[in-house]
Amino acid sequence: MFAGLRLSMRIARREALRYKGRSALSIALLGLPLLGVSIGATAYDTIDLSDEEEAVLYLGDNDAFVESAVPGIALTQYDWNSKWVGYSTEKEVDEETLNEAYSSVHTEADLLAELPAGTQIAPYSFYNDSGVTVTVETPDGIGELGTLGYDLANGVYEAAGWAFLEGAAPGGGEVAVTEAAADYLDLGVGDDLVIEENGASERLAISGIVEIPWNLRGQFAIAPGFDGGANGWLVDLPGEFTYEQSLALNEIGATVWATALVVDPPPPPPDAGMFTDSSIDTAMLTIYALIIVVVVMEVVLLAGPAFAISARRRTREFALMSANGASPAQIRNTVLAGGLLFGLIAAVVAVALGIVLVLVGLPFLEQLFGYRTPGLRVLPTLQAALVAAAIATGLLSALTAALSASRVNVVAALMGRTPGRKGSKRWLFIGLGTVAAGVASGLGGVALWNVPLMALAIVLAQLGLVACTPAILAGTARLGRWLPLAPRMALREAGRNRGSAAPAIAAVLGVVAAGVALSMVVTADQVRMEQNNPHDLRQDSLTLTMYSNAVDESVSPDWNSGLVAVEPLLRRHLTDLELVEIPLYTGWGGCGTGDLPVEDRPECNWELTRPEEHRCSYWDQDLEFAGEEERRKAAEIAREDPNCNEGVNDASLYFDDVPGSSDPTIVSAYTELEGDRLDEALAVLDEGGVLVSDAMAITEAGTVVLERTLTRWDEGSDRAVEVGEPVTLEVPAMVVADHLLAGEELFLSPAAAEQMDLARSGWSRTYLLETSTEVDGSVIEAVRADVRGDVDEGAFWVDLRQTDYSDLFAFYVVLLVTALCSLIALGATAVSTGLIIAEQRQDMTTLGAVGAAPGLRKRFAMWQTVVIALFGAGLGTVAGVLGYTLIRQALNDPLRYEYPFAVLYGWELPWVSIGITLAHSRRRAVRVVRSGRRGFRRGRRWRAG
Amino acid sequence: MTVLHLRGVSRVHGAGENAVHALIDAELQIAAGELVAIMGPSGSGKSTLLNLAGGLDAPTSGEVLVEGTVLAGLNKKLLARLRRRSVGYVFQDYNLVPSLTAAENAALPLELDGMSAGKARKTAISALEEVGLDAKQADRFPDELSGGQSQRVAIARALIGERRLVLADEPTGALDSTTGEEVLKLLRRRCDAGAAGLLVTHDARHAGWADRVVFLRDGRIVDSSAPLAGAETLLEGAQ
Question: How distant, in Å, are the alpha carbons of A557, A654, A801 from that of A546?
Answer without folding.
Answer: 10, 21, 11
